[in-house]
Amino acid sequence: MKKDDQFRLGRISTTLSQAMAFYQQRRVQPLQMGLFLLIAAFAGGFAGAAEPTPPGWYTPAKKDTFLAPSAIVATADGQRAYVACEATAEVIVFDTATRKISARIPVAAAPSGLALSADGARLFVTCAAPVSTVCIVDTGKGQVLDRIPAGYQAQSPVLSPDGGTLYVCNRFNNDVSVIDLAGKRELRRIAVPREPISAAITPDGKQLLVANHLHAGRADADVVAASVSVIDLAAGKVVKEIALPSGSTLLRDIRISPDGRHAVVAHVLARFHMPTTQVERGWINTSAGSIIDLANCERLNTVLFDSIDAGAATPWAVAWSADGKQLLVTHAATHELSVVNFPALLAKLSKIPAKLAPGQPVDYLAASRTAAEVPNDLSFLVGVRQRLKLPGKGPRSLAVAGGRAWVADYFSDTLDEVELAGDRARVTAVALGAIPQMTTARLGEHYFNDATICFQGWQACSSCHSHDGRVDGLNWDNLNDGIGNPKNGKSLLFAHLTPPSMWLGVRSNSFVAVRAGIRNSLFTVQPPEVATAMDDYLKSLTPMPSPHLVEGKLSPAAERGKKLFFDEKVACADCHKGTLYTDLKFHDVGTVGKYDQPTDRFDTPSLIELWRTGPFLHDGRAATLREVFTKFQNGDNHGVTSQLTPQQIDDLSEFVLSL
Fold first, then answer.
1. Which of 12, 149, 199, 655 is paired with 339 by a 20 to 30 Å CA distance?
2. Cβ–Cβ < 8 Å for 256, 202
């Protein structure tokens, strides 16, 4: 038996005894201990489960037949809705009176966002690609008039109030484009922390609020959270980062109320400081909306869309009614829509004190006694929110006009029409075409993003790996390798090609990990075809080209870094070898931390697409790759970099970030 295999088996066999010792030291009652062991045995969390033989590398099936609506915008009168269809690279025009498609407009690439001019004459479509395109559509003619280049994975186009400027989030460039529409050219880029995914402009046109999908720092800090950037458009720079509660991640959408007084951003609020021993009551993930007071650009508070016994996983799209009295949020993983009475919500928040006055009697029955407790209150929206089940699957985009909401469903190719008038909203489904014909991989993508296969709908696989199988940037204390040793979430790209799984290799391959994940993270038992479909989806993931490339090639700095990487004296390629830059072995690279065992050895990850998987190292202690080579280098165990100059460190980092 190989030494690495001995280590792996030894690690698995000792985890149960470590867990028993942990509980014995803390004098856990026998009943609690019995329940813990029962759960462990049922979940296969400590002993190895039966391991299917991994088949060969993924062979794509024939092209799926579906639309995948990714964005929607409606005319002010509500007579037409424009729906961006990601899979067919087109925008369809939907007549809301006849409930039929009246036109189809081909665009440059997969459309990711829409913005409509105030008069409805022009439609601006971001088409996401490494070099994205903004298509300007004449809605009267149904034709693309002009094309303007934008950044990497452009999305969320926002028009200035005067209609002269377009702002576009370039997700993987970590910046926002400012585009002059008269001159049809980009004026400047404004840098933001990380992965700008949505933006909204104040009615006076002075400020742009940008939701950053992920946090940009280290993951082992006490407070870890993504932020909302406030851009002063006259100055052309970020003037403030609005802090969200610790655990705020996977921000999706931000919208400003019609009166310009508030903004709401939808996001996951993760409880990453807790061991993942249970999922109920929001123990692992909750679904939140953070309310921003725009008078002083401060977070007013954060409310949860979940209920006590029913999660509302993956809050995605946000919209307001024309009068600002209704706040609408879709829940993409539980296929629901929240309709919130916003004035009533504000009134309820206003009654919660910032802190208890000295001598004030404590009401222990109150869920939220102070404002700081509201983000933990699963009952706060009771009485001010309608929670509607939608007939469609994957509600990722939302438009409100003419007293109705139109929700576009990514997986079912449907629109949900929601009548907002009256005491109770009414929902009707409208098909955009034939029933989608999905390959197993597409079905697996659906399951991966579906929280209805989780106990009480608290989370989906995408709650920790984002919707595309990558990262949430957080450290999690999962039970598969014991308690008390949190580790940074890994990208699932190439997971089926780089066994074993997990940092300590406690799952021999990703086939085992997928099935264990359903049991241990979703806390349910699913038919075998669910895991099989997820396998196909994960195997279908392909790497995206790095934004560090220059016209698809290594920059001069990266070329210099490549020579260093393969230099025998630097020795990076000793472990990061082959086409995936991994030897599939465990190594001690001097990064054992205070929560690890002294004998721990960590799996060598692939370096492909490392540029989008930070923070780095098994515990996310390094915010940048440069810190891996300098600040957290220990005795040249992780490559021999101590003799390199600062310029050489930068070059080496540039090469690795270009993979």
1. 199
2. yes
Query: 326 forms bridges with which residues in the sheet?
Result: 341
Answer whether 166's CB lies under 8 Å from 179's CB: yes
Cα separation, 504 vs 517, in Å, equals 16
Q: What is the DSSP letter of 497?
A: G
Strands of 196-201's sheet in order across: 196-201, 207-212, 227-232, 237-243
344 vs 293, 302, 371, CA distance in Å? Answer: 16, 15, 16
Q: Which two tokens stand for residue 602?
A: 């960590």
Run of H or E including 158: strand 154-159
For 362-386, the pLDDT digits (tens) are 777 778 999 999 999 999 999 999 9
| Contact call for residues 302 and 288 (beta carbons, < 8 A) | yes
**Coil, helix or strand at residue 529:** helix
Separation of alpha carbons 402 and 228, rounded Å: 30
> What is the SS3 assignment for 252?
strand
Nearest to 348 by CA among 330, 368, 321: 368
Find out whether 313 and 459 touch, Cβ atoms under 8 Å: yes
- Domains in the chain (CATH in brackets) are 1-64+438-542 (1.10.760), 544-659 (1.10.760.10)
* Residue 606 in this model has a pLDDT that exceeds 80: yes
What does the alpha-carbon distance between residue 99 and residue 86 come to, in Å, rounded to a whole number? 21
> pLDDT tens-digit profile of 92-141?
999 999 999 999 999 999 999 999 999 999 999 999 999 999 999 999 99
CB atoms within 10 A of CB 400: 20
Helix (H, G, I), strand (E, B) or coil at 594: coil
Cβ-proximal residues to 183 (8 Å cutoff; 6+ apart), any chain: none
Q: Is the dihedral of CA 517, 523, 529, 533 positive or negative?
A: negative
Query: Other CB atoms closer than 10 Å to residue 18's CB: what's the count?
Result: 17
642 and 632 Cβ atoms separated by less than 8 Å:
no
Count the Cβ atoms, other than its own, within 10 Å of residue 261.
15
pLDDT at 42: 33
